[in-house]
Sequence to fold (103 residues):
Amino acid sequence: MEQIERITQMEACLDASEQAIRELSEALSAFEEVQTKYRQLSDYYGSDQWMQDYEDDEAGKLPKDLKRGVLSEDAVYDLITENRELLVRMLRLVTSALETDGL
Fold:
């Protein structure tokens, strides 16, 4: 009976691991694909062009119905911070996994 329970438990570990790895792989692919756009946004934020766009928005020169979250100081900054924290988290995870698995 102990053997059956062990095999059943390990099968559940296999299934959960396969699903999580598949989902992570898909998420990493999407993350890699968006990095060019992310870099464009990061370069734009704080640039002279961003400042001009921000000032024009504040002066009411932009259309009222224009989506302009990018001109919010917090939205882009928060995204940059979150991206960096995610990269650090991935680095720590990889480092730990390599140390644990001895790869």
